[in-house]
C-alpha cells in the first residue's frame, strides 16, 4: 500500500498515512488536533546532492560508495 501525505487545514500539521488506493481521497482525522479538515498533498521528490554549494539542481547520486 502506498504512503500518502496530508495536511490539516485547522492546525497546519503535516502527516503521512498508509492507505489503499480506494481510500486515498478520503480525508483522515488529524493526529494532532482531531480535525476532519485535512487534504492530500502532492508528494515532494527527494533528490541527492553532492558538495556544499547549495545547488540542488543536481539529481544524480554519484558518490564514492562502492559495494562489494
TrEMBL record:
It comes from the Bacteria. Residues 44-68 are annotated as: Disordered. This is Putative regulatory protein, FmdB family. Residues 47-61 have a biased composition (Low complexity). InterPro entries: Regulatory_FmdB_Zinc_ribbon (IPR013429). Residues 1-43 form the Putative regulatory protein FmdB zinc ribbon domain.
Amino acid at each position: 500500500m502506498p504512503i500518502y501525505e496530508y495536511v490539516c487545514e485547522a492546525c497546519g500539521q503535516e502527516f503521512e498515512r498508509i492507505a489503499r488506493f480506494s481510500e486515498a481521497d478520503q480525508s483522515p482525522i488529524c493526529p494532532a488536533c482531531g480535525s476532519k479538515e485535512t487534504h492530500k498533498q502532492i508528494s515532494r521528490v527527494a533528490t541527492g546532492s553532492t558538495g556544499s554549494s547549495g545547488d540542488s539542481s543536481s539529481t544524480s547520486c554519484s558518490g564514492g560508495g562502492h559495494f562489494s
